[in-house]
Amino acid sequence: MEYARRWAAEHGLALDESLSLRDEGLSAYHQRHVKVGALGVFLRAVEDGLIEAGSVLIVEGLDRLSRAEPLKAQAQLTQIIHAGLTVVTAADGQEYSLEAIRENPYKLIHSLVVMIRAHEESDTKSKRVKAAIRRQCEGWIAGTWRGVIRNGKDPHWVRWNGTGWELTPERAEALRYAVRRFLDGLGGIQIVREMAAHGMQLTDDGRLGSPHLYKTLRKRLLIGEREMTLDGETYALPGYYPALLTEDEFNRLQLALARRVGKRGVGQIPNILTGMGLAVCGHCGGAMVSINSLKGRKLKPNGQPWPGVLRIGCTSHQRGAGCAVIGTIQALPIERALMLYCCDSMKMNELMSGGDQGQALRSDLAAARKRFAETEAKLERLARMLAEDDEPTPITVLRQIRELEATAEQDKQGIEKLERELASLKPTPAAPDLADRWLALLDGVENLDVDARMEARELVRASFARITLWHHGKDSRVVDMEITARGGGSTKLRIDKASGLLLD
After folding, report:
1. Is the full-model pTM beyond 0.85?
2. How far apart, in whole angstroms, are the C-alpha atoms of residue 473 and residue 282?
């Protein structure tokens, strides 16, 4: 700042000290000062003409302006100069402007040399740091290193006590509460509201949104495993943090997330069909979702919504993707029809005894393992062929290897998902017991009791693998539904969409 004041005074210019743009601690090597920092704001102001031509930017050195790859760094310098600005470096007193470069083109070469040196210094430091972190990760996996690995942020629910990591009690309990409520069937929005009402916090600033919650629930940090990625290589460090959940609890949570992926929660009045990845449109296969317009003017005097406000629609139709469905349908009659069917113990017994609950999963798992083994065998044959051939590897072979590796990774993920589903299977309750539970919830679901509807959602999730709906348009009085049980049995229902009565 002292140099800037002196330089301005010597050249008869006014130094603008009313605006402060600082990039303390932001990397000029990784360009964070451009992506999220003050230099990015400055460059946009230059582009928009908010900084007048003839202005002067004073920096300590060109390496403060950028330590990125030399061509990218020089492009940023050129952008500023082309806008009519002059860049002055305090370290060596150099001036870079259109006029100065016209007079002495070698200034560009000088600037490029400075930027090359700055980038090489940062690149060398980066490689050394990454190598040290890589050694620590490998040591952790081998059991020879148990110190702190400084890379990235640590989860909000742990703290370092000087000798090791430990759970922060209040935050750990808040996260366990969120897991329990998610497994109960609640969506992210409702869980966040409940946590706020109970004064629970997961973050330092107390702010928590449902997207952040969903992201947290997917992380293996919950079982104490930390993942670090260095130059595209991922290291899994088991036991790095204290575990918040057991492996079985985590697998159950991931299965619940997989079934409800992409959903936005269940809203203020939970729908017993949607938000679990079960209900689909019979016309296009798109997800059926709740469309609740709960505005004050549409509520009854007792605070409950009018029945027509709770509706179900096809996501493809909502996006204008050409689904044959026309409009939406009232949710309550469809729910009533499902509840009435499930209260009949004879019908439920016939439906639920349609097959072994895990038979289809085991068959799918065997097929997935066979595909994975075949892909691995192809990769091994290609590897042996390349090892025996001294000629350069053809591009087509390299492309084939990449495709096979991608296929193997997809198959591996599919196998893990199927294994989690098999591990989470529970014995199906006897049909009479199920019918009694449905019957006990019937009035509560009809009267929009949240607890009863949440319990009904759990029954739907535990009993059915798929619920397919055919809506035939606003002129039709019926909706067709196919229910597929987890055991493989299925049945079709025709429903009066106004009353919810089963027509056949």
Report:
1. no
2. 13
**Contacts from 129-137 at CB under 8 Å and sequence distance 24+?**
130/230, 130/231, 133/228, 133/230, 134/230, 134/235, 137/228, 137/230, 137/235, 137/237
- pLDDT, residue 295, reads 46
Output the CA–CA distances (angstroms, integers) from residue 310 to 215, 298, 306, 490, in the order listed: 28, 11, 8, 27
* Helices and strands, counts by H and E, the chain: 18, 14
Q: Assign domain 2-120 to a CATH class.
A: alpha beta
What tokens does 14 get? 């006014």
- How far is residue 42 CA from its own chain's centroid? 32
Q: And the tokens for 74?
A: 């020089």
**Fold assignment, 158-259:** Hect, E3 ligase catalytic domain fold (3.90.1750)
Q: Which of 261, 271, 266, 263 is nearest to 338 (CA)?
A: 271
Q: Would you call 212 exposed, middle or buried from its count of C-beta atoms within 10 A (0-12, 13-18, 19+)?
A: middle
Return d(Cα 462, Cα 352) in angstroms, integer: 11
Average pLDDT, the chain: 78
Share of the chain above pLDDT 90, in %: 9
Distance CA 479, CA 279 (A): 14
Angle at 444 between CA 441 and CA 448, to 5 degrees: 135
- State how far the Cα of 69 lies from the Cα of 66, in Å rounded to an integer: 9
Question: Cα separation of 230 and 239, whole Å?
Answer: 19
Tell how strand 56-59 and strand 86-89 pair up. Answer: parallel
Amino acid 424 reads S
The CA distance from 175 to 169, in Å, is: 10
- What is the model's pLDDT at position 297? 45
Query: What is the total residue count of the chain?
Result: 504
